[in-house]
């Protein structure tokens, strides 16, 4: 259960990071509201997962999921370009997140 909550919290990290970027410095209402709700839910989920998972592992997995998905969302929205090098580095990051899950 903790791993599932942690993964969902990582997904929500990508949501709040993307919403924050779209909020215009917290001046646009909808992205700001989405940012506020998703960051609270993401942190609550991370805190819940840390009750049973090691803090370092939980945080690394949460950040890794959020970072990769934030880049993916930016690429899909055509805000950033996905180069071969970036794709390779994101793949390595995904491998590290999976590796932390496997060894925990």
TrEMBL record:
Cell compartment(s), UniProt: Cell membrane
Give the record's family classification: Belongs to the drug/metabolite transporter (DMT) superfamily. Small multidrug resistance (SMR) (TC 2.A.7.1) family.
The name of this protein is: Quaternary ammonium compound-resistance protein SugE
- Domain of life of the organism in this record? Bacteria
The protein's UniProt keywords, in alphabetical order, are: Cell membrane, Membrane, Transmembrane, Transmembrane helix, Transport
Sequence intervals crossing the membrane: 33-50, 57-76, 82-103
Species of the source? Actinoplanes lutulentus
Q: Name one GO cellular component term.
A: plasma membrane
The membrane topology of this protein is: Multi-pass membrane protein
Query: Matching Gene3D superfamilies, A to Z?
Result: 1.10.3730.20
The record's GO molecular-function terms, alphabetically, read: transmembrane transporter activity
**Pfam families reported for this sequence:** Multi_Drug_Res
Q: Indicate where this protein is primarily found.
A: membrane
Looking up SUPFAM superfamilies in the UniProt record yields: Multidrug resistance efflux transporter EmrE (SSF103481)
């Amino acid at each position: 259960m903790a791993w599932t909550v942690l993964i969902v919290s990582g997904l929500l990290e990508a949501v709040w990071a993307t919403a924050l970027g779209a909020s215009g410095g917290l001046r646009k209402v909808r992205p700001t509201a989405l940012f506020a709700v998703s960051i609270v839910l993401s942190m609550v989920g991370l805190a819940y997962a840390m009750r049973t998972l090691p803090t370092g592992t939980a945080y690394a997995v949460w950040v890794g999921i959020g970072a990769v998905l934030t880049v993916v969302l930016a690429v899909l929205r055509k805000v950033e370009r996905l180069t071969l090098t970036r794709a390779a580095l994101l793949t390595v990051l995904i491998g590290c997140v999976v590796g932390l899950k496997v060894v925990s």
